[in-house]
Amino acid sequence: MALDPGGIIAWLIVGLIAGALAGRVVRGAGFGILGDIIVGIIGAFIGGFLASLIGLGGSAGLLGSIVIAFIGAVVLLLILRAFSGSRSRI
């Protein structure tokens, strides 16, 4: 992926949407705009890795990218939640 301004903005938007949705599904609340973007972008990498493991490759478009990033962000939050124990915040 080329890091042109449109690409960076698209990654931020995908990260924000995926992170916000995952934060609400896993914990019941988001982590603020910056936290949601970070969780979503890291989740996009995790989701992309998991998708490549099961043979899904290529371009998924904006909606597909959001879905894959969301799945990765949920996985990330579940892992963080498992390691954080019974604390209320990650």
Layout of strands and helices, then pairs:
Layout: H1 5-26, H2 32-53, H3 61-84
Helix pairs in contact: 1-2, 1-3, 2-3
Protein architecture, described:
- The protein is an all-alpha fold and 90 residues long.
- The chain has a domain at 17-25 and 39-80.
- The chain has helices at 5-26, 32-53, 61-84.
- The N and C termini lie far apart (30 Å).
- The relative contact order is 0.18.
Measure the end-to-end span.
Answer: 30 Å
Task: Sketch the topology as an H/E string, one letter per element.
Answer: HHH
**Low-pLDDT residue intervals, each spanning 5 or more residues:** 1-5
Q: What proportion of the residues is helical, as a percent range?
A: over 70%
Q: Count of DSSP helices? A: 3
Strand content: under 5%
Q: How large is the radius of gyration?
A: 13 Å
The largest sheet is: none
Number of strands: 0
Shape: globular
Mean pLDDT: 76
Helix/strand/pairing class, anyone? mainly alpha
Short description:
With 90 residues, the chain is an all-alpha fold. It has helices at 5-26, 32-53, 61-84.
Structural key phrases:
mainly alpha; 76% helix; 0% strand; globular; disordered N terminus
